[in-house]
Automatic annotation (TrEMBL):
GO biological process, one term: DNA-templated transcription initiation
Organism annotation: Nocardia asteroides NBRC 15531
Family, per entry: Belongs to the sigma-70 factor family. ECF subfamily.
Protein name per Swiss-Prot or TrEMBL: RNA polymerase ECF-type sigma factor
Alphabetic keyword roster: DNA-binding, Sigma factor, Transcription, Transcription regulation
NCBIfam families, A to Z: sigma70-ECF
Claim: Transcription regulation is one of the keywords in the record: yes
Length: 218
């Protein structure tokens, strides 16, 4: 499927970004015409993203993927209209809007992929292995892995442990996890941040990490 960047597409655009904003807030024919043009831009974005991630939906037909792209374009259009006042002109309007389509399609595909999947949580944390480990590195890695597992079990709350393992170990998309738990992305990011901060403090206290500046824990 060919991909057309919004900046080089054949979609007719107003000469200035300000015109987009003016037209999209118009209640008359100009507004309807601008909305149709906007949806064309968004549909290009959603089609591109849906087809880029199609391997996550192995059972989906071309028609089902197209339906998903169309629905995502509708959702993205509503999102763009809601956030129109936040457009600051740091990029072209079509580039700014295009990102909404990409985001909505990505979230929708991952949500579909996990719709009927459980979220399995491992009993142990698997750390990335060195491709060419020395005996000392193997020993140090095993010791650190045990320390991390102990810290997760000992120092995190059950909720923090669940969020950390789901997002970091099992790579569950955060939008999917938020939906399953009736939570929000921001709330899960905050929980993950707090969990990592606790882990770092625990590993430092037990001599497994040196004390050094860490921007992620501030």
């Amino acid at each position: 499927m060919s991909t057309v960047h919004p900046a080089t597409s054949g979609v007719a655009r107003p000469q200035a970004d300000e015109q987009w904003q003016a037209d999209l807030t118009d209640d008359g024919p100009a507004g309807r015409h601008a909305l149709a043009r906007l949806r064309e831009v968004l549909l290009r974005a959603t089609r591109h993203q849906v087809w880029r991630l199609r391997d996550l939906l192995p059972g989906a037909s071309a028609g089902e993927l197209e339906d998903l792209a169309q629905q995502c374009a509708d959702d993205a259009a509503l999102d763009v209209l809601r956030k129109l006042p936040t457009f600051e002109g740091r990029s072209r309007f079509t580039t700014w809007a295009y990102k909404f389509g990409v985001h909505h399609a990505g979230v929708a595909v991952r949500r579909q992929a996990w719709r009927h999947r459980e979220i399995p949580l491992p009993d142990a944390v698997a750390l990335a292995a060195d491709r060419a480990p020395t005996p000392d590195a193997v020993l140090a890695g095993a010791e650190l892995a045990r320390a991390v597992e102990s810290a997760i079990a000992r120092d995190l709350t059950p909720h923090q442990r669940y969020i950390l393992l789901a997002l970091v170990v099992e790579q569950v998309p955060i939008d999917v996890l938020a939906e399953r738990l009736g939570s929000t992305r921001n709330a899960l990011y905050k929980t993950l941040h707090d969990a990592r901060k606790r882990l770092r403090a625990s590993l430092i206290d037990h001599g497994h990490l040196d004390i050094s500046p860490d921007r992620s824990t501030r």
